[in-house]
Write a structure and sequence with these properties.
Helix Hairpins; alpha/beta
Length: 761
């Protein structure tokens, strides 16, 4: 049984726009429809995906790749639809990882994984450029729905797009969409599901001119005769990819039929020589020119019209004249980042205090319920003080992620990359390196792991290597709890300024080291940088909250899993072996004597004498706790390292925390929490880690500054090292990252401690 779907939308020209498609009823679907979302970077595709799926989404893992894609479910009437949010890309020729991932998802080896249809999200204000990807999908023979996004901005600019005429010329459904408001998304999804259940589409055949068409036709015949990859790709599409020199397709074709590939390659070489001799051009350039010629033909004669009464400088151009100005732009950028830190501290101070008080109360309650022993120590000192210390920073982390999501969705993040491109070139980097730096924590709160993955967009191996080796210097989200803790304790009067300075220190270190590497062991020529700046837009509250929650939940989940396990292991390492009885006996004897003296004091005894005895008792209890901790496995390791780290102001407790930080930087806070909890003078007094550090005479502003800089610069965490090894392709670069970064961090920390000691005394 079938029905006719009638999707009616208000056409931008004012007349009714209809798209009719015959398809099976949604109720009769035997399996969940798979719909792929594709589009250029910054076209609003992920905003549309978030509107469709809400929180019902997860990162999709594609074999052998690390570029992030997502899957999520949406409801259409009573049916569930699986949506794939594929990486933003301008093309489907396999040059970058994004292009490879998107193409493999659209035409996978397993037919069960193939999407039934594609929603191609394009920025309607740059329709011609966006449709370059549309045409390539149509050449694949996939059912496509074109979603012209950001129509609100197009209308404000006085542009009219005739959706009905555009649909007829392309032969596919076309819808006006405002993704951040959800307008037009339901109709586009309904049309995509209907198109996916209809008859198979014929691949689009574009004429590529008198030079290429005969060659393509002959290639197509050979491919069909050899039955080469016909179950996966249309034969003409395969022929076009061979002419484009698509390495991934050529390798796949060669593995299937080496003789066929040799024949097709010979034809391409002959054509290339002919084009070079006659037109001074390569086959892939001819293909690109004819695709754009086809697109311009589709858009001619009234598809896109400009209302001259509104022909004025777009708001984005007006804003860019200020925000990307050579002088004002960088100053505004620095102001925006400083304001972000100031807002984080001002708004987050209260909920952070509430969480610290809650975990202090929880530790007291659990401590009062349980008898003294290992279980009580594990729960109170190991888990509550360790993991609780990390979780108390959730409000600050959430506020920072919220602000970052706003900057990203508004389009300002891309402006930062644009403004920093010129600076990066001075230090031997590529403009495309900016985004990996930002993703890694360039404006605080990112992560080095996706940052390293993002270097796959860099086509120069030398620039990629210099980028992935230096981006761990950024202030990632894992380092933030350490910075927030120490800044809050020792730099109360200038919290935002110190955090801002730490972020700038990460940038400075990365750029200077990059210049050093590019001038010595990673020499090479620079490559050009081309970037599209998206229009400014007001982010939707839903999209910003989803992005914020995703990152915050990852932080919470890490604290409840990885850091919980690390806290338990470190508690055990700081508890066992227990102090030898002979070594403990002198402390216990003196403690017992002092307790007895206090007990025997008469009620009317001098308060000064009582206070002196109480102070002596606390000192002996603290000395015993410290000796027990030193005697443990972790204490022995920290004590062994201490002579090396003392010039930087680090004692053995801090050394233990820094060693644990190689596993995960957040573990530094939880380790310090456990170490100082186990060494607590009065176990009945539940105080936070911040208060313990403030009271410890071994700590000072100079020590805190040295530690923050060391954490900023030293060895990346374990998972980041694994990813660096994968991307760099050699163990030597992993070793370089560990050794060089740690030596650099040590030198900077020693200098900072010496200077800080002179300044603050």
């Amino acid at each position: 049984m079938s029905v006719t779907y009638d999707g009616t939308e208000a056409n931008d020209g004012g007349e009714a726009y209809e798209w009719h498609h015959t398809s099976p009823l949604l109720d009769s679907l035997s399996q969940t429809p798979r719909i792929a979302l594709v589009g250029n970077p910054n076209c609003g595709k992920t905003t549309a995906f978030n509107q469709y799926t809400g929180t019902h989404q997860h990162v999709a893992n594609y074999p052998g790749v690390t570029v992030e894609s997502k899957e999520g479910f949406s409801r259409l009437d009573d049916a569930r639809v699986l949506l794939l949010d594929l990486p933003g890309t301008y093309s489907l020729t396999a040059y970058s990882q994004e292009e490879i991932v998107t193409r493999e998802a659209l035409l996978p080896k397993d037919d069960k994984e193939r999407p039934q249809a594609v929603i191609d999200v394009v920025d309607a204000s740059t329709l011609e450029r966006g449709m370059f990807l549309t045409v390539q999908i149509l050449e694949m023979g996939l059912p496509v729905v074109l979603a012209c996004n950001m129509m609100d901005e197009v209308r404000k600019a006085g542009t009219v797009i005739d959706m009905n005429l555009l649909s007829r010329r392309l032969g596919i459904p076309v819808f006006p969409v405002v993704a951040r408001k959800g307008e037009g998304l339901d109709a586009a999804l309904r049309a995509a599901v209907a198109a996916g259940q209809g008859e198979a589409m014929e691949p689009l055949h574009i004429s590529y001119g008198s030079d290429l068409n005969p060659v393509l036709m002959e290639m197509e015949k050979k491919i069909v005769h050899a039955n080469a990859l016909l179950d996966r790709y249309p034969p003409r599409w395969t022929a076009v990819k061979v002419l484009e020199g698509d390495e991934a397709l050529v390798a796949e074709l060669g593995a299937y039929d080496a003789a066929l590939l040799e024949s097709l390659s010979a034809m391409r070489d002959t054509l290339s020589r002919h084009l070079e001799a006659t037109l001074r051009i390569a086959p892939e350039a001819v293909i690109t020119d004819y695709r754009y010629a086809y697109i311009r033909g589709v858009l001619r004669d009234g598809v896109v019209r400009k209302d001259n009464t509104k022909d004025r400088l777009a708001m984005t151009d007006k804003l860019d004249s200020v925000f990307t100005n050579a002088l004002a732009g960088p100053l505004i950028m620095l102001g925006v980042m400083y304001a972000m830190f100031y807002t984080t501290f001002e708004l987050g101070a209260y909920p952070q205090g509430w969480l610290e008080a809650f975990f202090g109360w929880l530790g007291t309650v659990v401590g009062n319920i349980l008898p003294d022993g290992l279980l009580k120590s594990l729960l109170v000192n190991g888990i509550i003080d360790g993991v609780g210390g990390v979780l108390s920073f959730v409000p600050l982390i959430m506020i920072m992620f919220l602000l970052i999501a706003f900057l990203d969705d508004s389009g300002y993040m891309a402006r930062m990359a644009y403004m920093l491109d010129r600076v990066f070139r001075m230090f031997g980097l590529h403009g495309a390196s900016v985004m990996p730096y930002i993703v890694s924590g360039g404006i605080a709160g990112g992560c080095a792991i996706p940052g390293v993955m993002a270097t796959r967009t860099l086509r120069s191996p030398k620039e990629k290597l210099a980028t992935l080796l230096t981006l761990p210097f950024m202030a990632c989200g894992a380092k933030l709890p350490v910075f927030l803790l120490l800044v809050g304790v020792f730099f109360q009067e200038n919290k935002a300024l110190v955090m801002f300075s730490l972020m700038l220190a990460g940038w400075a270190a990365a750029l200077l080291v990059s210049r050093l590497l590019r001038s010595t062991i990673i020499r090479g020529d620079a490559t050009p940088f081309v970037m599209e700046l998206p229009p400014y837009r007001l982010p939707s509250l839903r999209s910003v909250l989803i992005h914020c929650w995703e990152r915050t939940w990852m932080y919470i989940k890490k604290a409840g899993t990885v850091l919980l396990a690390i806290s338990v292991l470190l508690w055990a390492a700081m508890t066992f072996p227990e102090l030898d009885e002979e070594k403990a006996r002198p402390f216990e004897t003196e403690i017992a004597m002092l307790e007895e003296q206090i007990r025997l004091l008469p009620a009317d005894a001098d308060e000064a004498a009582r206070s002196d005895l109480a102070s002596s008792l606390e000192e002996k209890q603290a000395a015993l706790a410290s000796e027990e901790l030193r005697y443990s496995f972790a204490g022995r390791l920290g004590t062994f390292v201490e002579p090396v780290t003392l010039p930087a102001g680090f004692d053995w407790r801090t050394d233990i925390a820094l060693i644990s930080g190689i596993a995960a930087k957040e573990a530094i806070v939880s380790t310090l929490g456990t170490a100082y909890s186990l060494g607590e003078q009065d176990p009945e007094e539940a105080t936070g880690l911040a208060e313990r550090l403030a009271k410890d005479p071994a700590w000072s502003k100079a020590v805190a500054l040295a530690l923050m800089l060391f954490v900023l610069l030293y060895s990346p965490c374990f998972v980041a090292l694994v990813v660096i090894r994968q991307e760099a392709g050699s163990w030597k670069w992993l070793a370089f990252s560990v050794i060089f970064n740690t030596v650099l961090a040590y030198g900077v920390a020693v200098a900072a401690y010496r200077i800080g000691s002179l300044v603050w005394g």
